[in-house]
Every structure is written in C-alpha cells, then in structure tokens.
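Below is one protein, fold included:
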Amino acid sequence: MEECSNTGIVIQMQDYSIHDGDGVRTTIFLAGCKLRCQWCANPESWTTKSKLVFYRHKCIGCMKCATACPIDLIPCKMERPNDTCTACGKCVEVCTQKALDIACTEKSASALVKKIERDALFFRYSGGGVTFSGGEPFLQHKFMRVLLGKFEELGIDSWVETCGHFDFETVQDLIPKFSHIFLDIKHMDSEKHKNFTGCGNELILENAKKIYATGVPMTIRIPTIVEVNLDDENIEKTAQFILKNLPTANIELLPYHALGKAKYISLGIEDKFIPFTTPTAAQINHAYDIFKSYGIEIIEYR
C-alpha cells in the first residue's frame, strides 16, 4: 500500500519562478537531504528540523525576543541559535524588525494546495505549474504523494528537481506523475564526489538510469564550480555517461554563486561556509562546447 502523509516540512514556496521549468511556476522547497555539498546554497535543508533564523543586520537590540522566549533564551544574543532553541516561534511573533524567522515549517497539504490553486490561471496561460525542489524532495515522498494526487486532479503540471540520492523503489510510482525531471550530476569520480558531498555517486548514477528508463523527459543539471568539476576530464566523462545511458536528456550548467553565505550566517553556521570560484562565461561556454561535440542538447532555464 502506498504511504501518504497530509503534512510535510517546507523550507519555502517561491512564487512566479521562471527558472525551474517551463512557464510561470511555483517552486516548493522541501526540507531534508542526505548530501552535504560544500557549496550548498540551502543549508537549512540538511534536516527536517525547524530552525530559528537570525538576521543580525536587522536587529535593533530591543530585547523583545528575550521577554517572549518561554525557556529564557536571548535569541538575538545566541551565536548558534539552533543549539538550544526549540523554534517555537514566540520570538518571531514579537520581532518588529523581522530579524527573526523560522526555517523549515510544517505545512498541511490542504493549505499548500489552496495557495497554489490561486495561481492556476498563471500556470494555464504560461504553460507552467509546480516544481518540487529542496533539499531532496523525494525524501518526503509520503507528502509528495498526496500533493501530486491533488495537483493531478486540478490539472496542474508538476516537475521535480532532485540530487538523485534516494531509494528508487520507494518512489517509483511517483516518477510518471512528473512532466519533467531535473537531476544533478555533480562529479563522475565517486571518490571526489564523496569528498565534496559526503556521499559517493553510485546511487545517483543508477537512479539517473532508472528514471530515464521510465520515459519521463530529463534535464541533467551540473552545479559548475572551478575547483570541483569544471575540468575537461570530468566534463568529457559526464558527456560520455549521458550519451551512453541518457541519450535524449539535455544539459544545463548552473554556475556557482556565493549567495548562500547569508543563510550560513543567519543559521549560526558561518564556519561551515566554504567559498569557491564562480566560472567565467568563457569557461561555461567551453564546457557547453564539449557537450555539443557529443551531440547533447543544451538548454537554459536561467
């Protein structure tokens, strides 16, 4: 029997997105991920636990948060807000400067669908819909199963972005419900993949082949980082893998950016942020030329 859940842990919902698929879309970011990519722009997604977020630059030191805290913490003074905080949200309610917030909150499927249904007209006229992202959205497959059923009933198109690190058998009934799948391939060398993400790439590559076999259109996305995976050898091996195993998949390169640093600071884990080098346009075009030489189609949603 398929397992379902009427609630899930949501990082955020991004309305009117034009970068995560065709048309105007709403991107639902679901919490939870087994990878620990050193360049991750969404570190709040690493667990499904609710977390207090503190934006120091907004704080005026009014101390209302300390008065509201039921366990006598001073949220605006904690270097690592999540070490002892229960993320009850009482301090967020009284912060007039919006210097405090809660990341990863429990949402009901009915509330989420109600919100998305309001944008159905935009989806219909633009050829858009909903895109699940994360984190790794397939880790919350019980919640996704309920949402996909509702979206299917409403005629709302669904896409998904995945890192590929999940149990395929558990979610194989969900794959055909998507019109398109974005799958990340971060490095073809498993040892280097493990060094940079905490996990090898074997499961990811196997899942890529299994997803492709379902016939759902696929785009391979590569977060391109100079020090990690932009060398010709890795690009060549990636192209060879796609040509052999995913011959009709297209490719999109996503240049590294450091915009996630603010999240590390707000979560009190700034020491975990590792800066990398953003590739130049010439470097990206060179990598694209390699893929083109293998007959692989290039696509850009950004």
Remarks:
- DSSP finds eleven helices and ten strands in the chain.
- The chain has a mean pLDDT of 94.
- The longest strand covers residues 7-17.
